[in-house]
Amino acid sequence: MTHALKKLSRTVCGVVLAASIGVLADTSAFAEEDLWPTLRAEAFGDRPIAEENGYVVLETPKKVEDAAIVPLTVRIPPHVKDKLNSLSIFIDNNPDPKVATLNFGPAAGVGGERSFATRVRVDNFSHARAVLELEDGSLHMATKFLSAAGGCAAMQAKDPDADMAGIGKTVVRTFSPALSSNPIWSGQVMIKHPNHNGMQLDINTATFIPERYVREVTVERDGELVFKLDSTFSISTNPNFRFTFAKGDNNELDVSVVDTDGVAFDGTTKRESGS
């Protein structure tokens, strides 16, 4: 993000933060021009996108309790048998509308219900979109409207030192399916990281906290790629990802994480020898 754009985003986020406290209650006050045509052209050119055709389902809460931690789940129903190429998640009116892009590998699985879930920040009342690309190159989109605002500029109430303590600790879990015949397992990655976006105020100093967030997460199962995720600061503090993957020989997950400072972290489900 350029310096000018970041400065503008900070100003906008400040206005939205005030509005979210109660200055504005009418959602019409948040009306924005439709940014999707521009975002779509930048991301996909003139490629056709099938909308709401049942190939991808986007789930968001009807009522948002906290715009800084909005749960978002993408599901690919069992009737979709194709291999997955990528999944792109957008929130149109966020300072950086591209939330994340997942590029899938062979361990992402085929058949059964596949899914990806995380928590996001919502800056302003906006459409959220999930665009799925299948192996044949076709694009499929699901859209939901998010009635939330102020998530990008939520003030930092914690002790900054405490917030950074243990940064990078990565916990990885796997969950077997209820039926042993199900070829799809589930995994979870939890990363201790403040995911500062450069637009949050330190409540103690009233200054902006420097930008630092998780930008890349790679997940492998038994040495094969499940997905590589490129993310932005729209992912909430302490990133948490739930996802599915194909059943393997050992179903062990290895996760590597890199943040915007270039610092690398890792986590695994493998047990140390002798444990």
What distinguishing features does this structure have?
Immunoglobulin-like; 3 helices; mainly beta; 275 residues
Describe this structure in words.
The chain is mainly β and 275 residues long. The chain has one domain: Immunoglobulin-like (Sandwich), CATH 2.60.40. Helices cover 13% and strands 37% of the residues. The chain has three helices and 15 strands. The strands form two sheets. It has a nine-stranded mixed beta sheet, with no helix packed on it. A six-stranded antiparallel beta sheet has the order 2-3-6-13-10-9, with no helix packed on it. The longest helix has 21 residues.
In the CATH classification, which architecture applies? Sandwich
Strand order of the largest sheet: 1-8-7-4-5-12-11-14-15
CATH superfamily: SoxY domain
| Total domain units | 1
As residue ranges, the low-confidence spans are 1-31
Q: Return the CATH topology.
A: Immunoglobulin-like
Shape: globular
Q: What is the class in the CATH system? A: Mainly Beta
Query: Quick one: biggest sheet?
Result: 9 strands, mixed
What's the helix-strand series?
HHEEEEEEEEHEEEEEEE
Helix content: 10-25%
Radius of gyration: 19 Å
